[in-house]
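To assess whether ligand presence alters the predicted conformation, the chain was also submitted together with KG4. Input:
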Amino acid sequence: MSPASPLILGIETSCDDTACAVLDGDGRVLASVVSSQLAAHRPYGGVVPEIASREHLSNWPLVSAEALARAGVRMEDVELVAATRGPGLVGALLVGLSVGKAVAFALNRPFHGVHHLEGHLYSPFLPPPSTSEPSAPRPDSFVGLVVSGGHTSIFQVENGRVSTLAETRDDAIGEVFDKVGKRLGLPYPQGPKVDELAERGDPAARRFTVPFPGDDLFFSYSGLKSQALLEIEKLERRLGPIDLVSQEPVQEVLDLVAGFRAAAVGQVIDRLDRLHRRRPIPVLAVSGGVAANRLLRRELPAWAAERGIDLRLVPLAWSGDNAAMIAHAALLRHRRGEAGDPFSAEAESRIPI
Ligand code: KG4
Ligand code: ZN
């Protein structure tokens, strides 16, 4: 079966993953390759922007060749090109954006500079990998929750127009998972490991509070972060230094992490619940790296089912940063009749959606 037109090349280089994907016009993911730079950044304890840019440059030829080979297509077959234009690290974004524009220019094809959040927002409608299904029909109107290392936001999406309903006043949820994990000695990204450890703890043994937003609808995670760091300090005074790279965690550490996770996820559900009571949510699309969280994936379906909400949880493969979601966002723009962006579209570290 030949792929449906237009064949789309997606590129994502906003942080420390070099990603390339090929989608067909029905939204089938023909290939998605994500090359992690973790090893290059590990010695520095975080992402070094300069190294990220250099790594993107050196990884791109292999990553793109691999994506095209897996999809069974040639670069000349590509009919539409999409790259993330922001937000993110400017030097890193510039690599993917420049490559995308160059490919589009050389092939004389339209180019879309996609907002990273636009990619996440629509990712729950992508089919899981290793299926030959097209992407799910996307409702014209839905509520999108994006929980990641950079965002904790709820959006209303209407025919491609996006407005913000709630966002964090301070830290993003993923960032706080990472910081608590870092304090316990874990290497970046700490979120998945903290989640794994929390599975073995009892959240009732150490409760953390979920802040009250009053009449407003906003997230706040800095208080929870401070509470968790303080509790770790108290534990260390009794038990000695905690470093989970070299130690097996004791039950008290597992309980602390479980209590932290319960409050972090609890706040997400609390805000969704407030919103739903104010104005019912018919369709809820949940995306972003933290959408991989085990507790969130267990609790949300039950919460949504009780309220008759049509929940679309992003397939695990597309929760973290990837290029399939960028190509998919461009496909949706194409379906809305948008022609593409000028080659003058610039990389930007911060841009409103
Ligand atoms: O969407 P993403 O890949 O990158 C951003 O756009 O930020 O999200 C990465 C974030 C990191 O903070 C990572 O620790 C967090 O998602 N994360 C998790 C889990 N998996 C990834 N946080 C909690 N539980 C997880 N299972
Ligand atoms: Zn992201």
